[in-house]
Amino acid sequence: MIALVKQERSRGATIKDVPEPQLLPGHVLARVKVASICGTDAHIYEWNNWASSRVEPPRVMGHEFAAVVEEIGEGVESVRKGDLISGETHIYCGHCHQCRIGNFHLCENMRLRGVDTDGSFAELVLISEKTIWKNHPSLSADVASVQEPLGNAVHSVFSGEISGRSVVVFGCGPIGLCSIALCKAAGSDRVIAVDLSDYRLELAHKMGADVLINASREDPKSRISVELPQGADVVLEMSGSERAIRDALKVARPAARISLLGLPEREVTINLSDDVIFKGLTIQGIFGRKIFATWELASTLLLRGAVDLRRIITHKLKFQDYSYAFDLIRDGKCGKIVMEI
Ligand SMILES: [Zn+2]
Ligand SMILES: [Zn+2]
After folding, report:
1. Catalytic, out of 43, 63, 105, 315
2. Which domain holds residue 266?
3. Is 204 domain-assigned?
4. 43 is a catalytic site residue
5. Are 162 and 276 members of one domain?
6. Closest ligand to residue 96's CA
7. Which ligand is nearest to the CA of 115?
8. Same domain assignment for residues 25 and 128
9. 96: domain CATH number?
10. Closest of 182, 191, 190 to residue 300, by C-alpha
11. Residues 133 and 155 both lie in one domain
12. I need a surface site. Which of 107, 178, 218, 294 has the fewest CB within 10 A?
């Protein structure tokens, strides 16, 4: 079969012929219709510090997908041939302490699809039943493939009070964009979007952001102090930028909630006394999605029309155009890119 493979320990990836995955008990083989590209895939493609310390080439990339079940392994009961499925990226063990207390997303033996195991940028993907998400028949394959990052946004936005709260979102990549739409759907107060790309801020506007700040031209702190004189009730940090993390602490009002999802490249220095302790902030790390509580909630919101993922899908490309896709992501000139496999 054809797959996009991380072959060399340097920038790039290659489409090549690879052996089809072998069906295992408790698994299904599914034919991939649509795969969308995640920031994680871009890290692997660009071969940044994280990727070079984690990924062992050759590796079939990709984890966001919509695929049709083709072969059913022994013992699988929850899906049938022909079902359109997606999958949780975080492959949990089911028996460690975190799994046993219900924190599957924080499994101590976690493996990531397309990072530690072969992924879904391929004609066929092998999926264990415990990570299958069976899609509602009304969902298109394009939208189904983008539910995984929507789940990150759902996990972030709904990890605290949101209705009636003012919100600042740092970073308007796909997860930030989904978060903006969710905040508005949940009846938040004003939503302020901060990014370095006018293209992405325009998308943020389309998703319902009330105020747009391009941090390459304007200091977010001074603008937000005008827009929200008492400070923000909720700050969602989706960029991983050190400067944005420091700004997030400054623009939060006392006793605010800050949800951190973006991954910084290095350790970040912050003023804990002035910016966290004296302000009585609640800072929470957001990793992945709660399995499967977040998926259930995201699915309901999607089917009820609370968020329209078609708006963040800015490009639908052929699989063969993957290098163009990764260039667009590097340059911040896209929302979500989906590829027809
Ligand atoms: Zn993803
Ligand atoms: Zn576990």
Report:
1. 43
2. 151-285
3. yes
4. yes
5. yes
6. 2
7. 1
8. yes
9. 3.90.180.10
10. 182
11. no
12. 218
